[in-house]
Write a structure and sequence with these properties.
Elements: H1 7-16, E1 23-25, E2 28-30, E3 37-42, E4 47-53, H2 57-73, H3 81-97, H4 99-110, H5 114-134, E5 141-143, E6 151-153, E7 160-164, H6 170-183, E8 187-191, H7 198-210, E9 217-219, H8 224-233, E10 239-244, H9 246-258, E11 263-268, E12 273-276, H10 283-295, E13 307-311, H11 315-327, H12 347-362, E14 366-369, E15 384-387, H13 394-397, E16 404-410
Parallel strand pairs: 7-8, 7-10, 8-9, 10-11, 12-13, 13-16, 15-16
Antiparallel strand pairs: 1-2, 3-4, 5-6, 14-15
């Protein structure tokens, strides 16, 4: 079905879906060297989708070797900018042609609503096209010097780039990492989250069809403490890019220091506030935006607006409006285009969010709505709002990464 629109269409497409589950190394789909696999689960049902290759050190070493050979060979790194641009634009076109399948893979794998996944696809495609177009439009510089000197500023690829992406926006985050790296001429090894690897492996097929040369783009599914660690410690990796928790980011910095002091780019954690003052012109609109800021993507967003700081004179009225907005954002089947929220990514995250909610109650915060897991299959938590939260409370300080907001007073 090429253009699913209705709930039934997505259900049928999901039933017919087949998954690529092997690692993608040097233009071929292969099992992990160890033969090990791991389960990827549909969070909306708690049932297994597939068993995926679980890569480790030997797989990383093999991929790094191919990436280095591809970079040194120059088939991509020294390809004329216009030709590299055309290949990446062709990949973007293939993503556009397969956007429903790619969106469905992310929805099945991590539980986000299909409408949200479709939005992610447009963002991923746009990101790839933007960086492809930049290839022949970003120039070096000639620095001003005396007549006896010549100083040039050149834009050159680094070499082998390892990208470790999170599970909350699987393909969009992938595009953010690989698009600029590939556009610059680097070889890229992608390590998708073990909680959402399927769209990355489908992307590898499309990259091959687009004409990206062997070894230039590779995908190693697996765990952070195995293949992720191996990439971070590899002497053959020149740059490491990571989005995820602050704790893991610290570990990756240490691994970089223990190996070749590779460049490391981190995006770690968040606890973003919304500030609302009494002179706000439209409290209803702002309350809905505040609710969307925490409940979008089930709150599994590093920039989620998880705290509300509200001027006391409008505090009660505003919180009531947030509660009313939250009531319209209840979770449902991620395959239903009408669902605003889907399922938590897995049982571990589901339990973690419920533990935060329990701590909030124990520390004296007022639970105004939500707070309990929905009964039935899958890992669903409704919109949850606390009041009377202080900065000393755990839920006022820690990143919940779930549908739990915390209105507090601004004095």
């Amino acid at each position: 079905m090429s253009h699913p629109q209705q709930y039934a269409d997505w259900q049928q497409m999901a039933a017919d879906m087949r998954f690529e589950t092997r690692a993608y190394i040097n233009d071929e789909f292969v099992d992990a060297a160890s033969g090990e696999t791991f389960e990827t689960i549909n969070p909306a049902t708690g049932k297994r989708l597939a068993r995926v290759a679980s890569c480790d050190g030997p797989d990383a070493e093999l991929a790094v070797g191919h990436a280095r050979a591809a970079f040194d060979g120059g088939a991509w790194s020294r390809l004329a900018p216009g030709k590299r641009k055309r290949v990446l634009l062709r990949l973007a076109d293939l993503m556009e042609a397969n956007k429903h399948e790619l969106a469905l893979l992310d929805t099945l794998d991590m539980g986000k609503p299909i409408t949200s996944s479709l939005g992610d696809m447009q963002g991923a495609i746009g990101c790839l096209r933007y960086h492809a177009e930049s290839i022949d439009k970003m120039f070096g510089e000639v620095a001003p010097t005396g007549e006896e000197s010549l100083a040039l500023v050149l834009r050159e690829p680094l070499g082998v780039v390892a990208s470790i992406v999170p599970w909350n926006f699987p393909l969009m985050m992938t595009a953010w990492k690989i698009a600029p790296a590939l556009a610059a001429g680097n070889s890229v090894i992608l390590k998708p989250s073990e909680k959402s690897p399927l769209s990355a492996l489908r992307l590898a097929e499309l990259a091959r069809d687009a004409g990206i040369p062997s070894g230039v783009f590779q995908v190693l599914p697996g765990f952070g403490h195995t293949v992720g660690k191996a990439l971070a410690l590899s002497m053959g990796v020149d740059c490491l890019s990571f989005t995820g928790s602050t704790q893991v980011g610290k570990q990756l910095m240490q691994y970089a220091g223990q190996s070749n002091l590779k460049k490391v780019y981190l995006e770690c954690g968040g606890k973003s506030p919304n500030l609302v003052f009494a002179d706000c012109k439209n409290l209803d609109q702002v309350a809905r935006h505040a609710a969307e800021a925490i409940f979008h993507n089930q709150g599994e967003v590093c920039i989620a607006g998880s705290r509300l700081l509200v001027e006391n004179s409008i505090r009660e009225a505003f919180v009531e409006k947030v509660l009313a907005a939250a009531e319209t954002m209840q979770p449902g089947d991620p395959l239903d285009p009408k669902s605003f929220m889907g399922a938590m990514v897995d049982e571990t995250q589901h339990r973690r969010v419920l533990d935060f909610i329990r701590q909030g109650v124990e520390e004296g915060a007022s639970l105004r709505t939500g707070g309990e897991a929905l009964k039935g299959e899958g890992w669903f938590i409704p919109p949850t709002v606390f009041d009377g939260v202080t900065p000393q409370m755990v839920i006022g300080r820690e990143e919940i990464f779930g549908p739990g907001g915390a209105p507090v007073s601004l004095y």
